[in-house]
Amino acid sequence: MATFGDFPPSSSNNASSKQEPSWERKVLEDLAFAALKEQRTSRRWGYVFKGLMFLYLIAVIMLMVPSDDIAMHTEEHTALVEINGVIAADAEANADTVVTGIRDAFDNSSARGLILRMNTPGGSPVQSGIINDEIKRLQATRPDFPIYAVIQDVCASGGYYIAVAADEIYADKASIVGSIGVRMDSFGFTDTIKTLGIERRSLTAGENKSFLDPFMPMKDKDIKHAHTMLDTIHQQFINVVKQGRGDRLKDDPDLFSGLFWSGEQALTLGLIDGLANSSTVARDVIGAEDIVDYTPRPNYLDRFAGSLGATLSNVLLQSSMRMQ
């Protein structure tokens, strides 16, 4: 007798049930693949970690190896200190760095003379003044140790302030030399804030505390005071140049006007003593062709070790986050 609902499975249904895996098996396969993927990821991070540790150890070993000490140069040579770029307290050409190199040169009895190789547009009168004063002090301690300033592309303003402390100055015929002057730069935004409808609010204690505020109109007394200060510093510059160059300077009204000249013109004006480069001065003037660089350099290995340590920390942090 026929009944409702109890039909025997057809042959097609039996075939499909044999071909398609059950859901339990699919879940197990997914779990297995996930575990395998996690294993591979962990292994990959392990390789990265080991590689970085290897590089870190190499960096540490390199830092432990003593560097080439200038005191080891016992044969006669010409010392060299480079002054490159803007002269400023936070720049590569700062007084502390330059003075350190100059002192090291003076301390080595095997150095027959010092070349200040200059390529700078100038900068801070304070930093330049410190270097100039220290050169003069050191010259008094070792009078037989000559100093020569050798100009490359440019030696202007604060750079020339330093150069005049040398016994002689040399340059290329196309070098830029001079710019004996002082400047103070600023901007004015008074019309801008009016156009934008901005209200300037400045609270000060002291009537001159907002001196030369770029958001306020300039006052005549502020301009006068600024010019007085600039004229004072300019006169200091002029006195240093006259003291350093003496009778070698020609009587030219434009000499201290802030103008600059080519090396060939500077020779005519008495701003320099000759046309030559560092190698020529070392060989023909100082008489020691071997040049040793005394310029203090940034320790790039320290920077590398520090950045590598930061990278390792990030890797460890990311690895721990993945494991959680």
Describe this protein's structure.
Strands 1, 2, 3, 4, 5, 6, 7 and 8 form an 8-stranded mixed sheet that branches. Helix 2 (about 25-65) packs antiparallel against helix 10 (about 300-324) and helix 3 (about 95-105) runs parallel beside helix 4 (about 125-140). The longest helix has about 40 residues, at about 25-65. Mean pLDDT is about 85; it is low at about 1-15 and about 320-324. The chain has helices at about 10-20, 25-65, 95-105, 125-140, 160-165, 190-195, 220-245, 265-270, 280-285, 300-324, and strands spanning about 75-85, 110-120, 145-155, 170, 175-180, 260, 275, 290-295. The protein folds into 2 domains: about 25-65 and about 300-324; about 70-295, Alpha-Beta Complex (2-enoyl-CoA Hydratase, Chain A, domain 1). The protein is α/β, with parallel strands linked by helices and about 325 residues long. About 25% of the residues are buried. The chain is flat and about 105 Å long. It has 10 helices and 8 strands.
Topology:
Blueprint: H1 11-19, H2 23-64, E1 77-84, H3 95-107, E2 111-120, H4 125-141, E3 147-156, H5 158-163, E4 168-171, E5 176-178, H6 190-196, H7 220-245, E6 260-262, H8 263-269, E7 274-275, H9 278-286, E8 291-293, H10 300-323
Parallel strand pairs: 1-2, 1-8, 2-3, 3-4, 3-5, 4-7
Antiparallel strand pairs: 5-6
Keywords:
324 residues, 2-enoyl-CoA Hydratase, Chain A, domain 1, eight-stranded mixed β-sheet, 49% helix, disordered N terminus
